[in-house]
Amino acid sequence: MATASPAWTMSEWQTLAAQAPAQAGRELARRLQTALSPEQHRAVFATNPSEETLIEAFERVANTIAPLAGVPYALKDIFFTANDPLLAGSKFPPGVIPTRPKDSKLPHALQGFGAVLAGKTQLYEFAYGLTGENEHYGDCMHPQFPDRTSGGSSSGSAAAVAAGIVPVGVGTDTAGSIRVPAAFCGLFGFRTSAGHALIADAFPLGPSFDTAGWFTRSPQDMLTLNRFLLGRPAQIDRSPRGCYLGFNAFGITADQDVEKAYTNAASQIALPADRESTAQLQNSFAGSAESYAVLQSIEAYHVHAKWLDERRSDYSPKVWARIDRGRNWNVDQQQRAQARRTVIKHTWASFFMTYDYLVLPIAPFPALTKADSTQENRDRLLTLATPASLGGLPALTIPIRLPSGLTTGMQIIVNDPLSPVISWLLSRR
Fold it and tell me: What pTM value is reported for the model?
């Protein structure tokens, strides 16, 4: 039986860890053991340290000057930890994906700042999906709405934060894998940029599209985390200029309460895009999901080429098919997809000559039930997520609460992970 615990901020964890590190270790172990049902624990966590190991980790950082000392975090099992098996949500036997002698850069940085690893988290198999589903380890459901999925592919990390187990969850975002679960689980989410150093040595989905990212429950925690993982943004001497597009710009019909809540939230931080900008963005973004599907699946196929046929039975049918199509696109399809990517990149460059940020919706509905986790709804999510993905751009997701208690979100797209827009927006929450 799951037992709810009040969610603590990073600061609250640090206070306890400094005063009583052994107690902090026991409290984290308790939350790991009781916050989720056994079935959901398996769906959320791939591995957890023992209580003794957690106590030792808190004691090592107690009363040090490490800026994140005593902050527990969950890590998506797509980042390597030294000499440990990595499965990436698959049923590959341990060792098929070769282990590495060192941590990936992102967990290495967090360890250096004093953060405590609470466990590796599950994900949609090989990060190739936007729901919390996983046929190998069980579907990761929303901690507050257990009939609905958490969103994915960074499902376990989002659920661990939403359940109040840890204040920070680390994930990745290739085409919405931070943004969608942040919106569904009512979290703040941040994706960095494609090619950023913090994603360079993670296990890839689509190497030129992959980005690192993280979740927090509060804007203050997001500000703190960004400052240490990314650095201090430049100062600006004016209010940033932004605009927003609605669902209609994408030809998508949203749930009525979602559209109303999104428009209200977006209008508080930006003006509607002017007619010329709307037309340019709309024309550029048309077909982005289809172009992304071609280009990203080609990259995914190259990642998996040595396993795809030999280990076909180890893949779920959906994921195998998504990867397999990467070797079947014809030259004309590839050229048209690459041309669309080029157009989108040029459009973004032009947009950022006038504006500092663009606000877009990220989901036309709240967290989906398993029955509603269909290809049609996946395509609707990709339509909203792929313009930023094809541009390789950073995005902050801000949750939006609905009258039902469920949530959706808006994505604020900027041209640099260190854009001062991010801290400006978070400081206003």
Answer: 0.97
